Every structure is written in C-alpha cells, then in structure tokens.
Amino acid sequence: MPTLARIDQVELLQHVIVKAVPGQRLFEDDTDRDTFLSMLKPLLARTGTRCLAWVLLPDHFHLLLRPTTYRLTTLMLPLLVGYARGFNKRHGRRGRLFRGRYKSVACEDNTVLKELVRYLHLHPLRSGEVAKYRDLERHPWCGHGAIIDSSMQGWQSVDEVLGRFGRKRERCLLAYRRFVKAGRGQGERRELAGGGKRRVRRLGVEARPTRCDARMLGTSAFVQEIVEAQQWQRAPVRGRAENIYTPRRAVVSLSELVEKVAAAVGLSPEQVRRRCRAPEVRKARSVICYLAYIRNCHPGKAVAAELGMAHATVCACARAGETLLRYNFRLHHLRL
Three-state SS for 56? Predict the structure, then answer.
C-alpha cells in the first residue's frame, strides 16, 4: 500500500514524531541536544512556526508545532538534514540517522491540544530520564520548565498553552500544574501518537466517528474540514477569462469580499484597506485581489481603487493570494 501524503496546511496543529534508525541514538550527549535546539530556534522564527510543546529523548523526539506563514516541510527539511550531517560529522559515522520520513499528525485544537502538551511533557518521567515530577520542572530537554518559568525558552509559545487554562497567569500556571500532575499515572498513551478510528474512540473525542483518517486526530467534523481543504488544493485553477463566460456566475461585491477576508484573518476592513507592510495585512490584501479579480472578475482598476494600490500590482497580488488560499487551512473556505 503506498504511503499517503502528509496533511501539511498552514495554521494547522501538527504533532511531529522523529525516530532514529534501530540501534542508534539521536542524542549521544548534551552537546547534541544543544546543537539541535540551536538549529530549531532560528528556523521557527524564519518559517513563522510556533512551538507549543517539545521533548528530546535519546532515540527520538516530539514537537507540537503550528505553522503560521509557511508549511511544515519548510522547517522540518532543513532541520533534519542539517542535524543529521552535523551529527555524523561530529561522531564519525556514515549513513542514515532517521528511521524513514518524519511522522506528522494533524490535530484538532479544541479536543486534543491540552492532552498532547501533557503527553509530550511527561515523556521524561515515563522513560526514566527524571526520577520524580519535581525534577521534571528543571529538566532542560523538555518544554515543561519553560511553561512554569523555571527555564525560559524565548522561542516557545507559552502563552498559547496557558491560555487554554484560564485568563490570569497565576491561575493558569496552577491549573496547568494540576493538569500535568493528574496524568502521571496514565502510562504510555499510544492513542496520542497517531490518528484513525481506534485512537479517536480510545481518546474519547467521539464515541462513533463517521469520518476518520490515520493522518488526523480529531472529530469527524474536523476530518471533513481537512478533506475539503485537500480537495480545494487539488482543484484545477480556473482563470479569469473562463470565469467571465461562466453562466449564472455569482458575483460578490468588493465591499463584501473585504469584510469577509478581514474577518477570516482577524482584522478590520479599515486595516485591510490601509497600506501597511504587516504580514497579516499583506496576506489579506493578496487574498482579496485573487477573489475579486480572478474569481469574481471585478475590473482591476476597481480592485486597486478599493484597496488603495497601484493597478499594475493587482495581478501579482492575485497570484500570491491564490497560493495562500490553497495552502492555508484557515482560509480555504473563502471560495467566494
């Protein structure tokens, strides 16, 4: 059976698992771990990826990532290739270091995010890397210490995790600690290491799931949404000329397009209409150009006037907007 393609969408929570070849360790000493983290930090900033949880174990590691600008592969490829080359050179070895390609599971935020954070951060305790829970808070190769402020990691998205436990930081920390401690006796939870019907049932996300996929962990509605996004990616691109002569073509007004796209990216219509170099504003303006000029066939001059931009740049922005719609999980439904 052929290997299925990964679910690689921007703004989608991804549980990444990378293992070493049998009989080999990924991290021989603390220098290897420091090297890995020193490579991960700039790549997270460069690719616009948020890291919510992580843990480094002798023969494998886990990352809980959310790409926000580029897809996950733009981070994982240079990270794994660069680390493998440096590891082999430092330890005088040759050949493969990783067991096949990395595994990534698309996860639903509302149902499994907190469970995944606890699952990853309790790994050193389950594997015997640390003897007691209080030692876990000072363990340098796990993201748990950064969340409770005992070892700060500036590149880790601590606020996004604590925001799931309340509003005030002190209460959030207390609730997080209690939540993690409550999971000490759960053992190895294999249902959090992948997707599919059995794992969804065992996790208690949904009693009778109707749509399941081994690459996704979440409810049937979540899986259906991902499937629709994948279909949108594979759909043939219809050009402006074809759309003009399509019978019964529904045209959405420019003002309505601006309002809907602004709401999708969390901005106001006034912010979108204003010239700005902020990434979110530029993203919204590109999507509007594509939807208005290509999909709904509004004149280029009208689109330029609506957004306060040069007429000559509308086509280039429309091409960029098409790419954003195809690979952004949060924007794929804007098929107006």
Answer: strand
Cα–Cα distance for residue pair 197/203, rounded to 1 Å: 10
Q: Which of 270, 284, 287 is nearest to 321 (CA)?
A: 287
Domain count within the chain: 2
Task: Using alpha carbons only, give the angle 15, 106, 51 rounded to the nearest 5 degrees.
Answer: 40
Tell me which H or E stretch contains 217: strand 216-217
**Strand partners of residue 62:** 17, 55
Instruction: State which of 164, 196, 226 marks the end of a domain.
Output: 226
Interval 131-167: pLDDT, tens: 888 888 888 999 998 888 755 678 999 989 998 898 8
Provide φ and ψ at 73, rounded to 5°: -60, -25
Domain encompassing residue 279: 237-327
Report the largest interatomic distance among the alpha carbons of the chain, rounded to a whole angstrom: 70
Residue 264 domain-assigned? yes
Q: How many angstroms separate the CA atoms of 24 and 325, rounded? A: 41
Find tokens 């529904």 and name the residue: 250
